[in-house]
Amino acid sequence: xxxxxxxxxxxxxxxxxxxxxxxxxxxxxxxxxxxxxxxxxxxxxxxxxxxxxxxxxxxxxxxxxxxxxxxxxxxxxxxxxxxxxxxxxxxxxxxxxxxxxxxxxxxxxxxxxxxxxxxxxxxxxxxxxxxxxxxxxxxxxxxxxxxxxxxxxxxxxxxxxxxxxxxxxxxxxxxxxxxxxxxxxxxxxxxxxxxxxxxxxxxxxxxxxxxxxxxxxxxxxxxxxxxxxxxxxxxxxxxxxxxxxxxxxxxxxxxx
Length: 256
What we know:
The protein is an alpha/beta fold and 256 residues long. The protein has helices at residues 27-35, 110-121, 136-143, 215-228, 239-242, 251-255; strands at 2-3, 11-13, 16-17, 51-54, 59-62, 77-79, 94-97, 127-132, 153-158, 173-178, 198-200, 232-234.
C-alpha cells in the first residue's frame, strides 16, 4: 500500500492489478509496462505453486510476491499476499482500492471481489473508495447480496463522455469520476440520478489526440451539482481551465 499523489485519497491499495479495458488514455497500463512487463510466462505456472491461472489463463493469482510488481504485465492479477495490508495501518485513511486495475471488470471473479471486501471489513477504521468503468457489476453484486452498504465504502463510476453509464444507489455511497472529461457533459435528469459526489479532471499525459476540456463543460457539471447539493471535487489538472481557486469538496466532510 502506497502513499498517494491522487488528491482525493490518502493511499492507494492494489490487491488486484491489471485490466482488459483498452482505454487510450490509461496511465496504469504505462506504469505496468515500465515496472513489470511479462517476466513470468504461462508455461512456467504449473511448476510454481504460488501462481494460479484463472479464466483460461487470462487472469492470475499470486500468494507470494515476485521480484517485479507486475509479473504478468497488465493481465488481471490477484495479489493475495496484499490482502492484509489495510490491517497493518492503524491510523484511519481514505484508501483508493484498485488504482492499477478495474476491480469490477467483467473478467474479475466474484471470489476476488469478495476477498477484497472481506479485507476491507477487517480494517473498518479506513474509508474505501472503488472506481470502475463497468458499473453494471455493482448492480450484479448488489442483487447477489455481495455489495457492502457500510458507510465507509464508496462506489464510484468512471464516466468520460455523455454516453457513459454511471451508477447510483439509495442504499450505498456512490460517486462519479468524470475524468478525463472528453466532451460536453449534460447531467440529464440529474435529481433523479443522485450520486453523493462528483469528481472532475482533465486528461493527463502527452497523447497525440489529447483533449483539453472547455471551461463551459466544467461549469455545466458544477451548476447541475449545485442545484441538487452534490459536493464537487476538481482535480488540480483543471487549474488552467478553471482558474483559482479550484472547487475541492469532500462529501464525508459535509456529512460530519
